[in-house]
Design goal:
Blueprint: H1 4-34, H2 60-63, H3 89-113, E1 122-124, E2 145-147, E3 152-154, H4 157-164, H5 168-187, H6 189-199, H7 202-229, H8 235-244, H9 257-268
Parallel strand pairs: 1-3
Antiparallel strand pairs: 2-3
Helix pairs in contact: 3-5, 5-7, 5-8, 6-7, 7-8, 7-9, 8-9
């Protein structure tokens, strides 16, 4: 251990070493602050990603008062030319992109009329999609899906080809459904339903999910009717597309086969967006 005199001679060195270390830490923290390191940011995190339009809705009844649904708007007759469906990746993507042009033309007047943002969604047909919304749903869970965080409709080609084959009405019906989720996102319905679903018990959360999905069926149906009125689609095409909504299995998250078809046909039957108010519907109609 050495003598006490030696120890005393070493104290100044120890003190200077501690002081030097302290100054280095202070300098390092200042450098982080000045050059882009972590810093406090005022804001709120939302479970459904980046929202352009958020909602204070706490219950399904509150969501039913959204300006998309009250008093209701007619979807504009879509005047556009749909391409024939091809099964190669390039042909399929071209078909979907032309479908998105049609969907934008139909929904833009509605969104503008109610003061909501008009944003065209992006598209991906990748078989192994990498969305910003977290884990990608399996094929058993979803043929296609919409991610609000990156404003993208994901239409995995192999999944769609296995289920829809070369049926153009089936492919367009799926695309119209996913665009329905995009409309929900732009109007705040998607964020409101997701926040409510996260806070609810399991049985209520599943019902909220079904109300969300069945409304997307109806919104998709409204587009199909608008495209028929605009001359883009024939009546037979629209009937086949509507029927494809019932070509599915009953699901706790998406609804019974009967209700999936019923809400789609409510849309293709015409009317306004008020026709797609799943939020004030009786529970039996969203089972």
């Amino acid at each position: 251990m050495g003598s006490s005199r030696s120890a005393r001679r070493g104290w100044p060195v120890v003190i200077l070493g501690v002081l030097g270390t302290f100054l280095m830490v202070v300098f390092w923290m200042a450098a982080i602050r000045d050059f882009g390191g972590p810093r406090p940011i005022a804001g709120t995190a939302y479970a459904v990603g980046e929202q352009s339009e958020l909602s204070d809705a706490d219950t399904p009844v509150d969501i039913s008062k959204n300006s998309l649904l009250v008093p209701g708007r007619e979807v504009a007759a879509a005047q556009c030319a749909m391409l024939p469906l091809g099964t190669t990746a390039a042909q399929l993507e071209a078909f979907y992109r032309e479908g998105l042009v049609c969907l934008d033309r139909a929904w833009t007047p509605v969104l503008r009329a109610i003061g909501k943002p008009v944003v065209s969604p992006k598209l991906s047909i990748a078989d192994v999609p990498k969305a910003r919304c977290g884990v990608t749903p399996t094929e058993d869970e979803a043929l296609a899906f919409y991610c609000n965080r990156d404003r993208t409709i994901y239409m995995p080609r192999e999944r769609l080809m296995r289920s829809a084959g070369d049926s153009a009405p089936y492919h367009l019906a799926v695309l119209a459904h996913e665009y329905g989720h995009h409309v929900q996102a732009l109007t705040g319905i998607l964020s409101a339903s997701a926040l409510r679903e996260d806070a609810a018990e399991e049985s209520e959360a599943l019902e909220i999910s079904r109300r969300t999905e069945l409304q997307a069926n109806c919104l998709g149906g409204l587009f199909l009717d608008a495209a028929k009125r605009g001359g883009a689609l024939s009546a037979d095409f629209v009937d086949e597309a509507a029927d494809s909504f019932g070509d599915t299995l009953s699901s706790e998250t998406h609804g019974s086969r009967r209700n999936q078809l019923a809400w789609a046909k409510r849309g293709t039957g015409g009317g306004t967006t008020a026709s797609c108010d799943t939020w004030s519907a009786q529970s039996v109609d969203v089972e």
